[in-house]
Amino acid sequence: DKGNHRHFMEKEIYEQPEVISHALAHYVDLGAHTVRTAVSDAIDFASLRGLTISACGTAYLAGLIGKYWFERYARLPVEIDVASEFRYREIPLSTDQAALFISQSGETADTLASLRYCHDAGLKTGAVVNVRESTIARESDAVFPILAGPEIGVASTKAFTCQLTVLASLAIAAGKARGLIHADEERQLVRQLTEMPRLMSGVLNSIEPQIEALSRELSKYKDVLYLGRGTSYPLALEGALKLKEISYIHAEGYAAGELKHGPIALIDENMPVIVIAPHDRFFEKTVSNMQEVAARGGKIIFITDERGAAASKLPTMATITLPNVAEIIAPMVFSLPIQLLAYHTAVFMGTDVDQPRNLAKSVTVE
Ligand code: F6R
């Protein structure tokens, strides 16, 4: 049932504040602002030398953001790869590593094969899944449900932000277990996570008219480039993936710093550049990349926060301004304009948004 939404994808985008609340209730104590010990104890983070993550598509991009968090908050080195490569790379693994597998369906063939590979190598395995009865969940030592509820739209939206919520909670748990996050920092980070549903509702209630108008423009182009730094880099990849899979517009995501190593050759007035840049410690650097785009006549769609919008004077095709949010929740909050932009562009293109051509919700063959 789509409720009063035109597509499941739209419904699932709007469900995010609610399902993230459910996920948070499972992983954190909302009164004490701590990560639940049942969660943090499922993997012995204190004794680990490294973490390895394997997944496909959007789930892989959630894992890539998770890598930034585990390394930053828990000083835990993370090796991550798409499951179709991971399973065949003959990676040397050791039992002082744990392995996480991220999958909405819990049935993706390559992710399952990666899990079996790690299991055979004697690693402790954990599944970050939506479907708890799935094969990946059954075969893992620990299961971390994302609690997103059924996701019907082929393009993943709420599963992505719930995966991120779970990974952020696990990274905090890991940082705590490894003696790097102390009680007051834990409380602060958890409090920031708990602010997410309210902030996301506010964004969903305010940005749709602007995004709809912008999507009408975007639907006229054939190529789009997404740029970001830090955790906004995987988000740039996710933005490009979401746009191409449902609107069929060619889109690519790049780390902003890679612009001058190739893609800058493509910049002209025919390829809008979507820059994802909250006002974080990378902001100035991303703005200088934006400058390079503007100097070559590129059209910029700037997705930033209030501080970022006030700090940049560059002319843009559009600036989407989100509230200033804590660094740890920025990837989830910034997912909203990215998802809505892809959604409305696809609606203007008249594609089958919930069932894009050639794609399946669950990829059980390699
Ligand atoms: C993109 C998308 C796919 C899936 C990928 C993995 O919107 O939905 O890229 O993320 O096929 O699927 P799961 O998470 O079920 O393993």
Automatic annotation (TrEMBL):
Homodimer. Involved in the production of the root hair deformation (HAD) factor specifically on medicago. It is found in: Cytoplasm. Residues 39-180, 214-356 form the SIS domain. This is Glutamine--fructose-6-phosphate aminotransferase [isomerizing]. The active site is at residue 361. Keywords: Aminotransferase, Cytoplasm, Glutamine amidotransferase, Repeat, Transferase. GO terms for biological process: amino sugar biosynthetic process; carbohydrate metabolic process; fructose 6-phosphate metabolic process; protein N-linked glycosylation; UDP-N-acetylglucosamine metabolic process. One of its GO terms (cellular component) is cytosol. The chain holds residues 244 to 609 of 609 of the full protein. It comes from Pseudorhizobium pelagicum. It catalyses: D-fructose 6-phosphate + L-glutamine = D-glucosamine 6-phosphate + L-glutamate. It comes from the Bacteria. One of its GO terms (molecular function) is glutamine-fructose-6-phosphate transaminase (isomerizing) activity. Its EC number is 2.6.1.16.
